[in-house]
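User: Assemble these into one structure.

Assistant: Restating your components, then the assembled model:
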Amino acid sequence: MKAILKYSALLLGLAASASALAHAPFCECTALDADTIRCVGGFTDGSDAPGVTLDVMRAADNQVLMPGKLGADSSLTFKRPAEDFYILFDVGPGYQVEVEPSEIKGI
Amino acid sequence: MSGNSKLRRQWLRWRFHLSALLVLIPLGFMPQYFHEAKLDRGLRGLGEREIGNLQVGPWTARMAEWEVGEPEDEGRAGFVKAFTLAFCDSCSPQVKAAYLRIGQPRSLRAAGGLFAGTPHQQFAEVTIPARVTPADQLWLTVEGWDGAVHQAQIPLDQASPSLVAWLEKTRSNR
């Protein structure tokens, strides 16, 4: 009985590990008030993302409006720009998340 | 389950059959296993569904949808779909990086998922944000070692009819 339980646990562990390998980045932004936006970044495997780049970009020319990095709590709070913008969570080449203003919760 | 309880007697009688059942369970997954093993070994081509040949600047490439069907749910990261790519033999050494995304990239910095793998079969996953519609296009951005950047577009209904069907279903439910 113990052996069956042991091997069942091992099989379950192996099955679960396949999903644990996925680690896509995500970025969720919320408007705290009319002027302030807070973004939280991370990975789908549960990893945090302290120190990862999160730039506020100018929509007109794709230049960086406000350079930033996530804090120790994997979040960044910034003032909402007056001009058209979008948010670029940049983990590295091939791993970015763009957040449009329409995708910010509370706007 | 102590002594000669009825439960213990039942357990002793049926545990062999239960262990045989545990051996049989994986057999149900064998067709899917062999299907995926053939895909992984390239015996089914570049992917489950070949999209065709593409011309990207001076380079030619073949592209395929890795698995036909609905995109994979990656939780908080949203839905993703995998595509495969193979440049022509003489093209591969000239290509530094290839990226794939839905919709025109705003810059090379955010050109999409990065293709990775062997020259004969490279993988990239594209994210499918909520703003994507069936009329969108897949954008392939290729950067050469000489610094040149070339792009090609594929309408989503050509790239992945199964993704378009999923978009039509999910977008109409909003």
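The two ends of chain B are 54 Å apart (CA to CA).
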